[in-house]
Write a structure and sequence with these properties.
Homodimer. By secondary structure, this protein is an alpha/beta fold. Helices cover 43% and strands 12% of the residues. Among the domains are: 14-231, Rossmann fold (3-Layer(aba) Sandwich); 353-429, RNA-binding S4 domain (Structural Genomics Hypothetical 15.5 Kd Protein In mrcA-pckA Intergenic Region, Chain A, Roll), CATH 3.10.290.10. The strands form two sheets. It has a six-stranded mixed beta sheet with strand order 1-6-5-2-3-4, with helices on both faces. The protein has a five-stranded mixed beta sheet with strand order 7-11-10-8-9.
Length: 430
């Protein structure tokens, strides 16, 4: 980890770099934030994650990479996993959240704490610390909560929050309405216990975050600062998240490293520069050079490859990243299928479309038909006769060709390809 002394001449300060990357959307004061982040002393900051699912997803990457970015600049992270707030749920605009059993949430807390580990360092002068707001919230009685916390929150301000206004007609429970108080109390407790001076989160959390800043002040503590990052959206304008459909999880059991790599490899040309600024740890000059090279050779997808490799390495490590890259190349005949692990091969074929068959395998024409690469057996024979069919990257030239058990990769898989780009997988069930 580096210290947070002023940058050398000609190099952006941390705050300048965050602004160039578009990572600061709102703040309690840019001058105060700059003084805190670029000053000679390390600042203690926190960011929170509620356990509303068994895994973090790509929507959380903005916050975990920001925590890493601030720690690399010399500041001290407090990573809060909401064992208490996860039992309540931040209000959604659409409807009341489903409350999960406490024992389920406790299991998710443990899994998320483990997932956060690769992003920060737990050693050194600015070592990260994992905290759980159940440690202080669980000890409070209802009377203590209402007396010591609730009295500092004007109801008119709470009603003015946009998400609350949206729910007033359809109804909002006191449980979700009081979520803001719990999050604000987290900031006060972390300030009191650990000297926390800064909170950040997604821009949809701005109301909760500023309530925390105001609450710390009302309790006679501080000063403290806060900022928000922009919500990460897809090309269609929807945000990343588990409730938006098609979630991409950080847990490899829920989204394979191969699928994670492919997700970033396939982002739109119009979005990749923004994502690189948000998530990459490459310096500004390298990102500008990469953007220029990508504009000159868009078909090479240089920016997407750089983004996919860097993020997959960060989340899943270099070994899984290498497997994902090798699989991408091997499926299109530019590498060895035999060198792929069974897990990586199956993940890649699942993404492409994996057909499971039992009993004796049909001939190659039948395999092409059953996999959906061609509409009929007749069409499959035509493709073979024209030299456009491949099994395990080997061209098939005989229209009546068959496969044997020796052709099965890892004893159960076949990779079928039509032409250069259309491929599918077959798994033989035993």
């Amino acid at each position: 980890m580096t210290d947070s002394s002023p940058p050398p001449p000609g190099r952006d300060s941390l705050t300048d770099d965050l602004l160039w990357r578009g990572l600061i959307q709102d703040s309690t004061g840019l001058d105060e934030l700059r003084e805190l982040l670029d000053g000679p002393d390390a600042a203690t900051f926190y960011v929170g994650f509620d356990p509303t699912a068994p895994s973090l997803h790509v929507g959380h990457l903005m916050q975990v990479t920001m925590a890493r970015r601030l720690q690399l600049a010399g500041h001290r992270p407090l990573l809060l996993v909401g064992g208490a707030t996860g039992q309540i749920g931040d209000p959604k605009e659409s409807a009341e959240r489903t409350l999960n059993p406490p024992e389920v949430i406790a299991g998710w807390v443990a899994r998320i704490r483990e997932q956060l580990s690769p992003f920060v360092s737990y050693t050194g002068e600015n070592a990260a610390r994992l905290v759980n707001n159940l440690d202080w919230t669980g000890e409070m009685s209802v009377v203590e909560f209402l007396r010591d916390v609730g009295k500092h929150f004007p109801v008119n301000k709470m009603l003015a929050r946009e998400v609350v206004r949206a729910r007033l007609e359809t109804g909002i429970s006191f449980t979700e309405f009081s979520y803001q108080l719990l999050q604000a109390n987290d900031f006060f407790e972390l300030h009191r216990r650990h000297g926390c001076q800064l909170q950040f989160g997604g821009s949809d959390q701005w109301g909760n975050i500023t309530a925390g800043v105001d609450y710390v002040r009302r309790r006679g503590a501080g000063p403290v600062q806060a900022f928000t990052t922009p919500l990460v959206t897809k090309a269609d304008g929807t945000k990343f998240g588990k409730t938006e459909g098609g979630a991409v999880w950080l847990d490899p059991m829920l989204t394979s490293p191969y699928a994670f790599y492919q997700f970033w490899l396939n982002v739109d040309d119009g979005e990749v520069d923004r994502y690189l600024r948000y998530f990459s740890f490459r310096p500004r000059n390298e990102l500008e050079e990469l953007a220029k090279a990508t504009a000159e050779r868009p078909a090479a997808r240089l920016a997407q490859r750089a983004l996919a490799e860097e993020l997959t390495t960060l989340v899943h490590g270099p070994v899984e990243t290498r497997q994902a890259i090798d699989a991408s190349q091997a499926l299109f005949g530019r590498g060895s299928l035999e060198d792929l692990s069974p897990e990586t091969l199956r993940a890649a074929l699942t993404e492409a479309g994996l057909v499971q068959l039992a009993g004796e395998l049909p001939d190659v024409a039948g395999l092409l038909r059953d996999s959906g690469l061609v509409p009929s057996h007749k069409e499959a024979r035509r493709v073979i006769a024209e030299g456009g069919a491949y099994v395990n990257n080997n061209r098939v030239t005989e229209v009546d060709a068959t496969v044997s058990p020796d052709d099965l990769l890892h004893g159960r898989y076949l990779v079928l390809r039509r032409g250069k780009r259309s491929f599918a997988g077959v798994e033989l069930r035993k």
